[in-house]
Design brief:
Strand content of chain B: under 5%
Oligomer: heterodimer
Helix content of chain B: over 70%
Strand order of the largest sheet of chain B: 1-2
Strand content of chain A: under 5%
Mean pLDDT of chain B: 90
Number of strands of chain B: 2
Order of helices and strands of chain A: HHEEHHHHHHHHHH
Distance between the termini of chain B: 51 Å
Radius of gyration of chain A: 24 Å
Order of helices and strands of chain B: HHEEHHHHHHHHH
Shape of chain A: globular
Structural class of chain B: mainly alpha
Mean pLDDT of chain A: 91
Shape of chain B: globular
Strand order of the largest sheet of chain A: 1-2
Radius of gyration of chain B: 23 Å
Distance between the termini of chain A: 45 Å
């Protein structure tokens, strides 16, 4: 066997693999460049404050403010977190500390399945089941912040549960044994020792869940009614930033299309900062 | 002494929260099964949709899903596995390039699909002039599933015992021979799990594909043709109120695919832990 030729081949293979890895960096650069190039000119033309906070979205009349959609995203996301965080956290504690081993394993598989169901299926379920229920029992036409928050909450549960469960499982066994030895009950140990020790992981879970909620599109667009007027209750319809893009991209041109890309830029920057800060904090901790 | 009733009550509360999750899951899947099973038969799967989806079945959107997913996998699998091999077997610890690639991978995983849709539209559809097509959709999807494939392949490679490599190298095998003949074969079950999970993501993706593959119901003849996937089909049927029975049938088709994919992923994961224990 020719040893020198072998060594040269090895070098080429390493270079090839390195190029594969470089694809990631190239991808993120091209993604930002192309979205920014389409969106930023409009933001500078309209003005950042005007673009973000003007409540009038009248793209055909040259008024490009995403304020109403900004509030829509905020309202749906916060309402979703309001119920999904406590339920998710309790389920995580259940899986890590309370459930019998077999029940914990079954739960883990069910939660993987919950995470695997596509958002368009959740949106469809919301449209057919949740929206009519709200219309008949709570009032309004059903397409509402509440419907969006229920569906979105279901969708972010797996993120919240999986990450907080891992954080709770990572708490050293000694902490619990010492607490129990001091006479604390099981639930006192969970509340005063385990949860505080797992705090940073739980915060990560909530932050990533929030990121997922802000970026979610298909489920929300199908159940929130998509009105650009700010509602006075959670039974009223809203449009989120993501919905705005998917609803209008099909026919938008010129400045209107640029405004949709600018909305994408806002989402992109928000999510990237959220994820980077979580990941850098996590890497520093490790 | 502590209040026993309080302890029992709290335990019950945790059981209640977990049951709620199970009920939600069963409600979503059960409802779609119940309402979808009536239209879901071989004829529905194998006939083309007519009148914008009002009549007929889901053959064309099923092919759309198949083509875009296959295209995405063919692109992302080699790049993803190559990256994982580079990061775990070649890059030195504290290598800045590897650190940035890892961070980029985590960032890409978090970007919302609608942003990928915007990117795919402006880059593949317009700039590279590929139009609304299977290829534009596939390439956009490929970037979206790259982080999943890479991350799981990294974990699988990392789990291969170090002695395997040391023994191979000690026998005079080169680095690449060790990687290709020893490390990768041992990591295959883990890599497969990642691939199966990304198939699930690709099958369910909607927002990014509306903007890159289009929503045409025509039978695609080549990679350059536009295509409507199952999930896009469901969205349009439901939102435009074209046909609710067919929307349920389409939703059921997606749910069945996801159930199968999930089962396969679980099976592959169990095989992984078994091989890890006995070898």
């Amino acid at each position: 066997m020719n040893k020198r030729r072998y060594r040269i081949a090895e070098k080429y293979i390493e270079k090839g693999l390195m190029i594969c890895a470089a694809v990631f960096i190239i991808a993120i650069i091209i993604i930002s460049l192309f979205i920014f190039a389409r969106g930023i000119p409009l933001v500078t033309k309209v003005g950042l404050g005007e673009f973000l906070f003007n409540l009038n979205w009248l793209p055909t009349r040259g008024s490009f403010g995403i304020g109403a959609m900004f509030i829509g995203t905020l309202a749906v996301t916060l309402t979703a977190l309001l119920w999904a965080v406590p339920i998710g956290l309790m389920t995580a504690i259940f899986m890590a500390e309370i459930a019998p081993r077999k029940a914990g394993q079954v739960m883990a598989e069910l939660i993987n399945l919950l995470a695997g169901i596509p958002s368009v299926v959740y949106g469809f379920f919301g449209l057919i089941v949740i929206v009519p229920y709200i219309r008949e029992h709570l009032g309004g036409n059903g397409l509402s912040i509440l419907a969006g928050a229920i569906i979105l909450g279901i969708m972010i549960l797996p993120t919240i549960i999986n990450i907080s469960r891992d954080a709770i499982l990572a708490v050293p066994e000694d902490y619990k044994i010492n607490s129990l030895a001091l006479g604390a009950s099981h639930h006192q140990t969970i509340g005063r020792v385990v949860l505080p020790a797992a705090r940073s992981g739980i915060i990560t879970a909530i932050v990533l869940g929030m990121g997922r909620a802000v970026g979610e599109t298909m489920a929300v667009v199908m159940v929130t009614g998509n009105s650009t007027i700010i509602p006075d209750s959670i039974l009223g319809p809203v449009r989120t930033m993501t919905s705005n893009i998917v609803l209008e991209m099909g026919y938008a041109t010129g400045d209107h299309q640029a405004a949709l890309f600018a909305t994408g830029v806002v989402l992109f920057i928000f999510i990237v900062i959220l994820n980077l800060s979580v990941n850098i904090a996590r890497n520093r901790g490790a | 002494m502590y209040n026993d009733i309080e302890e029992k009550g709290l335990t019950a509360l945790y059981w209640l929260a977990a049951s709620l999750i199970v009920i939600i899951l069963l409600a979503v899947i059960g409802y779609i099964f119940m309402r979808g099973i009536g239209v879901f038969n071989l004829d529905f799967i194998l006939s083309k949709p007519g009148a914008g989806g009002k009549t007929g079945g889901i053959l064309t959107p099923m092919l759309g899903t198949l083509y875009t997913t296959a295209g995405a996998l063919l692109t992302a699998i080699p790049i993803g596995i190559g990256t994982a091999i580079y990061l775990e077997e070649y890059a030195h610890r504290r290598n800045v390039f590897a650190y940035i690639v890892n961070l980029t991978s985590e960032t890409l995983a978090g970007i919302p699909s609608i942003v990928y849709g915007l990117f795919g539209f402006v880059f593949f559809v317009l700039y590279l002039d590929l139009g609304w097509s299977i290829i534009s959709g596939s390439l956009t999807l490929a970037i979206m599933i790259l982080p999943t494939i890479t991350r799981t392949a990294q974990e699988a490679i990392l789990a291969v015992p170090r002695e395997y490599r040391e023994n191979s190298l000690a026998l005079g095998a080169s680095r690449w021979q060790t990687v290709s003949k020893i490390v990768i074969p041992s990591a295959i079950p883990g890599i497969m799990t990642g691939i199966i999970l990304s198939i699930g993501r690709a099958v369910g993706e909607t927002a990014a594909l509306i903007l890159t593959a289009g929503s045409s119901l025509g039978m695609p003849g080549s990679l350059a043709d536009p295509a409507r996937t199952l999930s896009v089909h469901l969205y349009i049927l439901a939102m435009e109120g074209i046909s609710m029975p067919r929307a349920f049938g389409t939703a059921l088709a997606i749910v069945i695919m996801i159930l199968m994919i999930n089962y396969l992923a679980g099976w592959s994961m169990r095989r992984l832990s078994r091989s890890g224990r006995f070898e």
